[in-house]
Amino acid sequence: MRIPESAIQQYRYTEQWYQASASAAAARPHAASYRMPDANALLGFAASAAERLGDVAARADAARAAALRARSGVFERMTAASSNPDAATAAATERAKPDAYDIVVERVAAAQRNAGRALPAEQRGGFAAGAHRLAIATAGRTTYAEARIDAADTNAAALGKLRDAIRASGAEARASVIRDAAGGTVRLQLTAPGTGSDYAFEVRDVAGSAAADSGIDAATEAAVDARYRVNGGEARTSSSNTVPLDNGRVLATLKRAGGEPVRLTVGPDASAAANAAKELAGAYNALLGSAAAASGALHPATARLVARLPADGLEDAGIRRLPDGALAVDEERLADALTSRYGETVRKLTGSGGLAGAIDRIAAAIAAAPTSALLHPNLRAAQAGLPLYAPRLGAYPAWLGMNGLLLDKTY
Q: In the chain, what are the domains?
């Protein structure tokens, strides 16, 4: 874009007039009061160039942010699908390998439960008066609970004391009193904090007979370990229904026993990958469009830098280059590429020589360049008559003198 000589001359007249009226300018609330009518073309050009170059810089920042997000592991995110979610499901970490597992659930793990006898809630004399001491033993640890029961205590009151004593003892088994309002009964119940033999426990009387009298000294539901097979292999057991696969990078959850294998398929998260690819392509397309819109104000070398995005091999990864240079994402092809050529595809998209790396380098070069380096050479030639001005609160240049008053107060 060429600046008319008449506009440059008018700028000089305006600047001379402004300097002569400097004292009056400070008293005026708006710089427009001092704008010479014939300077509008020059000021409009300045604002337009500033706006276009500012947009290029902003789009470059956004493209770089999108590139950094794409390289943060989103394309390496894995997901797991189940052929029968009612029987088994799985969750995969980012380090999981794409694979498939056929799981046969022979038995699911269950927690031990000791449900005491139902006793008339308001009846007295169900427990001998005096001190009662219970031992609750788990693997490698025994805790003791002590409670004093009075002759006047009802069964509900006595069981409440036992419950509170067991809770205060630090025993892992959870104690609760179950009331049946309709039947008028109450019972004490102990439940293991987890499933399987790892959380099995034993209750016995040490002093008194509260465990036997309440019925909590016998398991009504035994602790059971899960039993399952993977890919037709030998049976495995687990105290938990959450079992590791791929050295713990995949966690399967067993939900229901059955004879039919459940297929757990681990693979790239196609939805997350597609969203990240579209965000990256959209950010680059916005930068490309902004550079084109700034033609005449933007340095041609910067425009060429943006347009010459390396795209070799990207089509195999589901990224197409359109005739205008913009990028388009083929979600189906991207998903197929991640499934069949996972490592290669991730490198093409996120590697240092891949798409995200190339966009990051382009955006970083724009961000690192001084503002004057972004200007078209034809505009630089006018600097002798129109000094470069950078506003106090902006990042764009404007061809204004006048100590910045006009731009700061007008735009």
A: 5-74+271-410 (no CATH), 78-109+225-268 (no CATH), 113-214 (2.60.40)
